[in-house]
């Protein structure tokens, strides 16, 4: 076999962890964040809910009433009255409710962040799959060259009547199978790009990165978890909901204070007029009954739910991290074993010397190729596991 092909395969094997010069994945994710229809729709929904929440802290409309009473059995002049009034809750209620609304708006923003990550993670996984397919194409193109070279050598031997037609047909089929493999990979790439295009709001995605960015080296479980607890919107939204529940208690307490009414009144009868201000307040006996207890109960529920959910997240995180460590160890063993092998060259040499038949050569070659395919597959899975572990950083 041509030594350049052996060298190229070796270089491909040794470059599994090379860092890309430019991280095209980040560019794709930024485009998707900008163009994704679900994110655009949710952003509009959040703005609508924000305005609705703010409207809930408005004062009620002022009221104006007027009386003109010309009928009846009175001897004095007609009676007229005009009144304008404004009702409102106790002033501290508006301040507390404003704080509650701010917490609720922050929770809405975190809901958007959660949805954003739920969309960007599969997009990143698709990009990592495309890198894997690009690596496979590079390998398969070398294998096609190798299969073609073997086929040409056997055809020369066939023309010299040193091998039979069956040997020639097997070599040709092996060459054709390698060509078909490339076509299948290209089709898989096309389908993945269509999925990315859908996430990108129907806009075409250009992505041809052929190496992974970042490192596969072992990460620390504790450091990732602490970072996740601090920055993961799925965790932060629970903390925010606790703040909302706590603010709801404060609001319920303040709503136990009386509502107020203030206004201006003007009355006229028998040519005389009377004008002045008036005020009133409600007597808070029944309207707020049990609301403070209900708010406290909701707060306790939210605390318990947050603790349980964080434990569930941590449990799933530990499982993912254990899978990552197990796969990383297996990957390193494969990489160490295969990096020093030149089995394809040795097999071809044995075949050319007549030590093994073509079918033996091809069978053994497939064994080593499958091992290399497994190495590429593990590398992809490792990168995808890391993407899941670091999902909170998207």
Automatic annotation (TrEMBL):
Organism: Splendidivirga corallicola
Keywords per UniProt: Signal
Signal peptide boundaries: 1-20
Protein name: TolC family protein
Origin: domain of life: Bacteria
PANTHER family: BLR4935 PROTEIN, OUTER MEMBRANE CATION EFFLUX PROTEIN
Gene3D superfamilies the UniProt entry points to: Outer membrane efflux proteins (OEP)
Record-linked InterPro entries: MdtP/NodT-like
